[in-house]
Structures are given as C-alpha cells and as structure tokens.
Amino acid sequence: MPLTREQIAKRISDEVQDGYTVNLGIGIPTLVANYIPSNKTVMLQSENGLLGMGPFPTEDKIDADLINAGKQTITALPGASFFSSADSFAMIRGGHIDLTVLGAMEVDEEGSIANWMVPGKMIKGMGGAMDLVAGARNVIVAMQHTDKEGNSKLRKKCTLPLTGVKCIKKIVSDFGVIEVTDDGFVLKEYAPDMTAEQVVKATEGKIKISPDCKAMSV
Fold it and tell me: For the chain, which residues score pLDDT lower than 70?
C-alpha cells in the first residue's frame, strides 16, 4: 500500500534540522508541523505574515482569527512574530528560508515543478510558490506519485505551466523518497508495502534505483 498523507509528512519531518526556518505549503506539507520533534528548535513561517507557527489546534484551542496562508486555523508558539505579507515575502526573497515543503501536480526528471494551475480551470493566482522555489535554500516536494487514473506525476517533462525550473532536489511521494540528480530521478527509499521495481514502473521520467535503496521506516 502507498503511504498515507500523514506518513509522507512524518518522513519529511526527518529532513527538518535543528535551527531551521521552514515554510510549509498548502496540503500535505502543512501536516509536517505535527511531526517535528520537540527537541528541535524550528521556526515555521507562513506567507501571510507569521514566524513561529505551531501545530494544528485541538478543538478547544481554535482561534478563527489565527490562520495560515491556506486559511487553516493554526497555533502560534511562544515568541512568535506577526508582520505584513510584504515583510514575509522579503524574508522569502532574501534567502532567509532554509527549507520549503511544497505540494505538486507534476515534477519532471530535471527538477522542474508545476503546482499552481491546470489550464482551463478557475484559479486564484500563483500565491507564494514561485517566490519560494526561487528564494528558499532547499525545496522538498510532498505529493501523490500518480493521478486518479494511475498516470505518473513524476514526468519526463512537465506538461502543466511551470512554477520553477530545475529547482527540486528531493520528492517524498506516497510511493517513496526520490532524489533529483543531473541524471534524472534516483529512488532512495520505497513504501514498505511496495517494491523498488513497482516504484520504477510507476514513474514516467528516467529513474534509477540507488545502490543503498531501502524500505522506508514509517
């Protein structure tokens, strides 16, 4: 069985290092906040103007006025800072975000990402994704490996409008952990109930199995 959304988020939390400033995108990435160990000091940033975002609130802690960029209710940790979205994007564009975790509709073997629109469908705009892929020091993608029809979303070449070009280095999908190299995708870990060969078969882009490839620990 592929990984759940929560298992993807938990695996990505292992990539978050002590002292990091991290931006979490809409969707699966927001769940990462729930799995960051208490022994790590991590500042979570939201594009709408918050540094020091905490995990999602329990029912008795919900504050309708405290939301993230995806309009979900959140918590703020002691010492959190609130500021304008202009200051927030200055932080992103200035290279002060150590890691951003984004969702994606497609990632190709060169590390380009499409995650903001499907032609012909109503959209609100690109949001902060374009700034994040250009300004963050590291970008990890959390995504489903295939679409509802079983077609690979890890492509030879993105078919949807791009958010960023050659900017993704690592993907954590529901099938495994894939690094993006100059020679295409490299499978590093696969979902426990799958095989490396199944992941390769489900990937359209060029992909190799790493010599040290292993089952994920979830």
Answer: 122-124
At the topology level, CATH places domain 5-215 in: Glutaconate Coenzyme A-transferase (3.40.1080)
Please give the positions annotated as active site. Answer: 47
List the domain boundaries for the chain: 5-215
**Predicted TM-score (pTM) of this structure:** 0.92
Contact 22, 42 (CB under 8 A): yes
Work out the number of other CB atoms within 10 angstroms of the CB of residue 105.
20
Q: Write the pLDDT tens digit of every residue in 132-164.
A: 999 999 999 999 999 999 999 999 999 999 999
